[in-house]
Design goal:
- This protein has 112 residues and is mainly beta.
- It contains no helices and eleven strands.
- Strands 2, 4, 5, 6, 9, 10 and 11 form a seven-stranded mixed sheet that branches.
Amino acid sequence: EVQLMESGGGLVQPGGSLRLSCAASGFTFSFYDMSWYRQAPGKERDFVATITWSGGNTYYADSVKGRFTISRDNAKNTVYLQMNSLKPDDTAVYYCNLGRFWGQGTPVTVSS
């Protein structure tokens, strides 16, 4: 059974940083590209970033490019999202994704 468990969300001031983690189980993690999405209140779920199976390639939404970094540790079956220079518009529930599988999400609130 595929399981994705996000952690690391919270309340942060504008300009601050957070690192999200997604612990994966139930599949061969190192074989698959992994992604992060987010859903702001009252809005659709949007793509944030993808990392390929080896970690060799990453892709970002324009809105986070240069501020967020996706990475992975295949030995730990974990994917990360380092978020810097956070803005109030980054406030959302952040989800880890593998194809049709989703985690439960971790909330991030950027506010002073």
